[in-house]
Every structure is written in structure tokens, then in C-alpha cells.
Design a protein that fits this description.
This protein is of the alpha/beta class and about 425 residues long. It has 16 helices and 13 strands. It starts with a strand and ends in a 5-residue tail after the last strand.
């Protein structure tokens, strides 16, 4: 297998780490992307995304000659599609990137090639969309070209380790495809590899994230009810989870990222029977509005300054896709007269839509602020000196949407502290 040439189509948060890990396993890996900035950086042994361990591994593999970026496709033994599948305004999967990738691959296919769709997709996409496009090559799908879906299931911040250690599902359009792809993935996956058909593999990925979304919605609904009833939802969760068969999740300002906030819609986009999944999505998508409403209750002046700490979709990553805090910022700027200042040590200013409101220093962000909103529990915010920051503020108020800050210390420092899910 080490003499195989592999082409990764799409060098984002999954594609580039996959390329680097497969190169480390000894394969000759090509990385293809339409973004010239990504390709130029890769060929310099650099990356433009934030992921622990990835920069060093990419540099090592490029230097070793086992990984390079390309701007046009070449012949390969294996093609892995890892392009985005964003959600449309009407909550359906935008499969245009997958479709384009398959169309670009088809002219380069030769007998014995393998094509794997890793992009998260609605059930049936591999068999009903990708395979027919590849068939335009004139080669027999499942006999001369082997096609499968193998969803990633990694955690940002630990992608390099989890690509190797986590169990993997491979679903081929026929048994021959499944086995061909399994043989490739076995070269770098140390976890168990489970085999099935492509539709089942697609649904597995969607349901893994739907399970989490539904349970987060329950926690968020608890937070809303607890605030209304004057109860501390966090204490309810702590004690309820002492039950041996209960594991309540944590509430927050919403759900973000390209997985949990998106995948459930792919399950139900053509199936109105999915009522529970839809309701969970509505609850979680509604949390930024709940937070906005609370902010308006906490500030007296309609033109008050609000300092937002953290806008990525989760702590200690640079990914803002579907970030609930970014949706909160959108709402504040579009529907209120509030002044909004933003701080996030992980955000790339070049791609951030509100770069003019993004400050490098915390002190500049909170200066003359009427309210600090902790949007993301980045580690950096756990060590802030609020006794000094309070001196810069107009009003010493904090709204903690993650139950992350030391509330006792803040209260002792004269701050009015509000916590999402804690009734007053």
C-alpha cells in the first residue's frame, strides 16, 4: 500500500490532516484545493488553519517529499473527497462541492482506482450522486472503480491523534468497494474498522451528531425553564448526573461547528416525520436570540457598549462555522443600537466578517464597556484579571453564557454576575 498515490480533494479542517497522516503512513499524497492560498502555504510546508500538531507534521511530510499541493488534478490510485457540504438557507445540504469534485475526478480515473467520499452527506449521496458521475468515465462502478463513504469522527484540537486512534466506518456501494477501501484505511487507522453499505455509513455519521444535538437541546430547554423558575440549571445537572443512567449535557448560547449544528438537518431534509430532530434544532438555533434578549435586559442604555469575549464555535479552536456567538453578534449589530467590541485570540482577522470590531487586546475590548459577555470558554479567559479589567469598564457587569468564570471572585470584585441557566 505504501506505493499508492493518494489525492485528497479539499484541504480544510479534515482534508489537510488526513493528507498529512496518510503521508506519514508512507503514501505519496497530493492535496488539491481551489484556494491558491492553501496550496501555496502547503508547498511551503505551512498551514493556514489552527490545529495542534498539524503544522509540524505538514512541514515534515512536505520536506520528506511525501506531500505536496496541486492546483489541477493528476492521475492517482485513490481519490478522497473532503470538501464542504454547507447548509442552505432552506436547511438542506448544499452538495454542489461534492458534485464538482466528482466531476473533476471522473476524467482522471483508470481501472482499479478507489474513490472515497468523506464529506458529511445525506443518506444516498455516495450511491445516487457520486457513483453516477464517476460512471461517466466509462469504467464500471464497483468492478473497475471502487466507491465508498467513510465519515470522519474527530474532535478539533485532537484531529491528528483521532484520525489514527478512533474506530472507523466504511460503507461501500458493494462489498468489493468496501474491502478495497478498508485495505487503504488500514494503513493508518489503528482503531477498529467496521464495514457496512454506503447509506448506513452516511446515516451513522449524521446520527452520531444528531444524538448530541438532541441532548444539548434538552439541556438548553432546562436552562430556559430554570431561569423562568428561579432554579440553577447547573446544579440540577450536577445532581441529576449522580444517577447511574443519566448524563445530562451542558447548556450554552447555542450549537455551532459544521457537524452538530448541520448534520441533523441532512437527516430530515426530505422527511417531515423527524419531529424531535427538528424541534431540537429549533431550540438550539434559538439560543443566540435568548442570549440577545438577556443582554438587552442587563444594559440600561440602548447605545451601551458590549464586549464579547470569544466568537468561535467551541473553545481553543479557530473555527467560526455556524458559531452561535457569531449569530449573536449578527443580531446585536442588525437589530440593536448597541456598540459591540470583540476579542478572540484564535480568530483569523483576514476571514473574520467583523474584523473592524475585533481587538487584539482584552483591555481595548472592555474599555468603557457596560457589559462583558463571555461567549466562548477559551482557556485564556480563565486567567483574566477582572479586578484590573473592571477599572476600565463603565459598568461592572458580566454575563457568562458558559458557567466558566469564577463567579465568587467576580462578586467579591463588585461585579454583577449573570449566568445562563441560573435563575435570579
Amino acid at each position: 500500500m505504501k506505493d499508492k498515490r493518494v489525492t485528497i480533494v479539499g484541504l480544510g479542517y479534515i482534508g489537510l490532516p488526513t493528507a498529512a497522516v496518510m503521508a506519514r503512513a508512507g503514501m505519496d499524497v497530493l492535496g488539491y484545493d481551489l484556494n491558491k492560498r492553501v496550496i501555496n502555504a502547503l508547498n511551503e510546508g505551512e498551514i493556514i488553519i489552527e490545529e495542534p500538531g498539524l503544522s509540524d507534521l505538514v512541514n515534515e511530510m512536505v520536506s520528506a517529499g511525501r506531500l505536496r499541493g496541486i492546483s489541477s488534478l493528476e492521475e492517482s490510485d485513490v481519490f478522497i473527497i473532503a470538501v464542504p457540504t454547507p447548509i442552505t438557507e432552506d436547511k438542506k445540504a448544499d452538495m454542489s462541492y461534492v458534485e464538482s469534485a466528482a466531476e473533476e475526478i471522473a476524467p482522471h480515473l483508470k481501472p482499479g482506482n478507489i474513490v472515497v467520499l468523506e464529506s458529511t452527506s445525506p443518506p444516498g449521496a455516495t450511491e445516487e450522486m457520486v457513483a453516477p458521475i464517476l460512471a461517466r468515465s466509462g469504467l464500471k462502478i464497483g468492478e473497475e472503480i471502487f466507491v465508498a463513504h467513510s465519515p470522519e469522527r474527530v474532535l478539533p484540537g485532537k484531529i491528528i491523534q483521532e484520525l489514527v486512534q478512533n474506530d472507523r466506518i466504511i460503507g461501500g456501494i458493494n462489498p468489493e468497494s468496501t474491502e478495497a477501501v478498508k485495505e487503504i484505511y488500514r494503513t493508518f487507522v489503528k482503531g477498529e474498522i467496521y464495514t457496512t453499505d454506503s447509506k448506513t455509513a452516511e446515516m451513522c455519521k449524521l446520527m452520531e451528531n444528531t444524538f448530541r444535538d438532541v441532548n444539548i437541546a434538552l439541556a438548553n430547554e432546562l436552562a430556559i425553564l430554570a431561569e423562568n423558575m428561579g432554579i440553577d440549571a447547573w446544579e440540577v445537572i450536577r445532581f441529576a448526573n449522580k444517577h447511574p443512567r443519566v448524563n445530562l449535557h451542558q447548556p450554552g448560547p447555542g450549537v455551532g461547528g459544521h457537524c452538530i449544528a448541520v448534520d441533523p438537518w441532512f437527516v430530515i431534509e426530505n422527511h417531515p416525520e423527524g419531529r424531535l430532530i427538528r424541534q431540537a434544532r429549533d431550540i438550539n438555533d434559538g439560543m443566540p436570540d435568548k442570549v440577545l434578549h438577556r443582554i438587552l435586559q442587563l444594559v440600561q442604555d440602548e447605545e451601551a457598549k458590549v464586549a464579547i469575549l470569544g466568537v468561535t464555535y467551541k473553545p481553543d479552536v479557530d473555527d467560526t462555522r455556524e458559531s452561535p456567538i457569531l449569530k449573536l453578534v449578527d443580531g446585536l449589530l442588525q437589530r440593536t443600537k448597541l456598540q459591540v467590541a470583540i476579542h478572540d485570540p484564535h480568530v483569523d482577522r483576514e476571514v473574520f466578517p467583523y474584523s473592524g470590531r475585533l481587538y487584539d487586546k482584552i483591555e481595548d475590548t472592555v474599555k468603557d464597556a457596560d457589559l462583558i459577555v463571555l461567549g466562548v470558554n477559551h482557556f485564556e479567559y480563565s486567567t483574566l484579571d477582572f479586578s484590573e479589567l473592571g477599572k476600565l469598564m463603565k459598568s461592572k457587569k458580566v454575563y457568562d453564557t458558559r458557567n466558566y468564570l469564577n463567579q465568587k471572585e467576580l462578586a467579591q470584585g463588585g461585579f454583577q454576575v449573570t449566568v445562563l441557566g441560573r435563575g435570579n
